[in-house]
Amino acid sequence: xxxxxxxxVFKMELYLMTRGKSDVVEExxxxxxxxxxxxxxxxxxxxxxSVFLECQLRPIQLWSFVFPKENMDLVLNTLKLPxxxxxxxxxxxxxxxxxxMPKIWALRKLLGAKEIPKPNPEAGMMFLPFDRLKHxxxxxxxxxxxxxxxxxxxxxx
Length: 157
Hints:
Order of helices and strands: EHEEHHH
Radius of gyration: 22 Å
Distance between the termini: 61 Å
Helix content: 10-25%
Strand content: 5-15%
Shape: elongated
Number of domains: 2
Number of strands: 3
């Protein structure tokens, strides 16, 4: 069996954020994950042809988790926040692939948040299926007070 070498001419990666009703966002994500677009490839012998590339939707999600202020230590302990180093490293911890920790302050500032404080370890943890967390990274960005609910015009409503 002979494998022919070909070179991709152009491939781009677009970064974006979404916000909206969860079922609408999920439907959009399903639709985006099924897109195929034409792309030119160059073969080793110099020929060029157009093939269809399966586009990939790779989630890097920004979340806002609202909880009672008196449970802050419990929540931070559960999510293992704040981190000492970037969670985007090799499994053995030998090398950080994307060192974004020094740059998090800009996103924190845009969100109007403060640095995440160290929680009291004595506060315990919420029940969470940790076997599901082992295949994902959680990166703490910042924390802020959401305010009291006083009227129906509050941002959470």
